[in-house]
Design goal:
Largest sheet: 4 strands, mixed
Strand content: 25-35%
Mean pLDDT: 88
Strand order of the largest sheet: 1-4-3-2
Number of strands: 4
Order of helices and strands: EHEEE
Helix content: 10-25%
Radius of gyration: 15 Å
Structural class: alpha+beta
């Protein structure tokens, strides 16, 4: 297997796997419905979790140069 991507049921399972393998959990973005996506990667395996509740944080600020 070159790359294995699996979705887990909840954040507790993702955090437990990340702790057991010594890696960190990263927020990767959001679904079109606004649910946050988190993942952790160890070797060729990536576990992904989509949180069940939409994000309540505002989107990041985008800076645009006044010179362009």
């Amino acid at each position: 297997t070159y790359c294995e991507i699996r979705q887990v049921a909840d954040m507790a399972e993702l955090r437990a796997w990340a702790a057991a393998t010594g890696v960190t959990v990263h927020r990767r973005g959001e679904t079109l419905e606004g649910h946050p996506i988190h993942s952790a990667t160890h070797g060729a395996t990536t576990l992904v979790c989509v949180a069940p509740t939409p994000t309540t944080t505002p989107p990041p600020v985008v800076w645009r140069s006044p010179f362009t």
